[in-house]
Amino acid sequence: QVFATQGREAQTMSKGIDYSKWDHIDDSDDEEEQPAKRQPAARPPPGAEAGAGGLTEEQKAELVANHPEVAAKAGIVSQTKSVKGTKRKQYHHQGQLVYEWEQGLDEVNVYIQPPPGATAQMLDIEIRADHLVVGIKGNPERFLNHVTWGRVKCSESFWTIEDGELHLTLTKLDKGTPWDAALQGHEPLDPLAKQEIRGDIMRERFAEEHPGFDFSNATFNGNVPDPS
Predict the structure, then answer these.
(1) How many other CB atoms sit within 10 Å of the CB of residue 28?
(2) Could you give the CA distance from residue 101 to residue 89 in angstroms, rounded to a whole number?
(3) CA angle 65-180-225, nearest 5°?
(4) Mind listing the pLDDT tens digit of every residue in the chain (228 residues)?
């Protein structure tokens, strides 16, 4: 089944989303909850930005839990990982796989494993020009509620469920422009991965502009040109 989405009025991006909420598809809040008081986040241990050396295991665990971006920069945890044998990248949050994603000349594809028992009719998905929302109908908690890295052509974007996997296709408004991440606020690709993706998109553009020629093994001297 293929499902198109129509944009509604944009909402402010949620911060500190608990991705484990995706697993509780029956947890709809019937009673109004009192907002919890926000506690100021503890500062990262001194020297954490420079690397993991000198930090105790307790400090490392605290860094991963409360400052995942700093933990990734320190080499304690990698939030964006490649999937062997594919061009997919994985986004992890506190050790949990949130989604996989890949991109080409025209599209960014996001892959999510829905909770057991979830059907297409139960999903609440919105693809907007600069925002992606994924959740379960009747549950105010959203699994994803983020600004997209680049602009999206909503009229040509859609989602499907294939072999038990939720597949979202985001058509790039700016064709050929590489995205550093699927969603803003998530760990961007490292410089080497960025160059590899620029090369893949550039070869795809060559193939589109010169049909009949094989550019799959084309290489570039120095930095890859801007494929947009």
Answers:
(1) 12
(2) 5
(3) 155
(4) 555 554 443 333 334 466 765 655 444 444 443 443 434 445 655 655 555 567 777 777 666 555 655 665 666 554 555 665 578 999 998 888 999 999 999 999 999 999 888 999 999 999 999 999 999 999 998 999 999 999 999 999 999 999 899 999 999 999 999 999 999 989 899 988 998 899 899 888 888 888 887 777 777 766 777 877
Distances (CA, A) of 137 to 66, 124, 143, 145, 147: 29, 5, 11, 14, 20
Report residue 75 as tokens.
């080499």
Exposed, middle or buried, 4 (CB in 10 Å: 0-12/13-18/19+)?
Answer: exposed
pTM for the structure as a whole: 0.67
Distance CA 43, CA 96 (A): 23
For the stretch 76-113, what's the b/e string if a residue is b when 16 or more beta carbons lie within 10 angstroms of its beta carbon?
bbebbeeeeeeebbbbbbeeeebbbbbbebbbbbbbbe
Q: Are 175 and 228 in contact (CB under 8 A)?
A: yes
Contact predicate 127/154, CB 8 Å: yes
- Least Cα distance to 20 among 115, 132, 138, 124 occurs for 115
How many angstroms separate the CA atoms of 40 and 200, rounded? 43
